[in-house]
Fold this sequence. Notes:
Elements: E1 2-7, H1 11-23, E2 27-32, H2 39-44, E3 52-55, E4 58-61, H3 63-73, H4 84-100, H5 105-110, H6 113-130, H7 147-157, H8 171-181, H9 184-189, H10 192-195
Parallel strand pairs: 1-2
Antiparallel strand pairs: 1-3, 3-4
Amino acid sequence: MMILYSGTACPFSQRCRIVLFEKGMDFEIKDVDMHDKSDEIAAMNPYNQLPILVERDLTLYESNIINEYIDERFPHPQLMPADPVMRARARLFLHNFERDLFSQLPDIVNGTPKVAEKARAIVRDNLTQIAPIFNKQKYMLGDDYSMLDVAIAPLLWRLDHYGIQLPKPATPLLKYAERLFSRPAFIEALTPVEKSMRK
């Protein structure tokens, strides 16, 4: 049995919950209070961060590493592309998401008003830049739902919560987001805290 130690409001934990529900397999989710983490978390992850996946004697942390492991261990439905070139491109996209988008979240959540506003603008501009691709395709890599869609969904879910208003040119991205939010696995993976982030 896989056990996921998951933060109830953590976007990175949400990614892993989505993948577990997409795979429809047996697993256990242990909810962890992000502000009151036990010593057990620090013992499993030297960075004292969530999510953490434990399966027998294997302990993994870092959401993209956890999700690739789950995808390889339970290949149906496959979320990383089978083709090595496409898989390398997908990993590059994931890396860019971390650097361009998710790296701004600490400043949005904990920064001074000026710092938070700058971080919001960076996220808004980056998202607006990728919006046009959804005029032509259903998901990030085309017609097939993939790990890229899993990775960005938690951020799109939290836009209002983070105070990020997207301009009109980003409308295709917002329609894409609604497609992600309507997936059964996405809905099942939501915690009560996450549900309350959107009215």
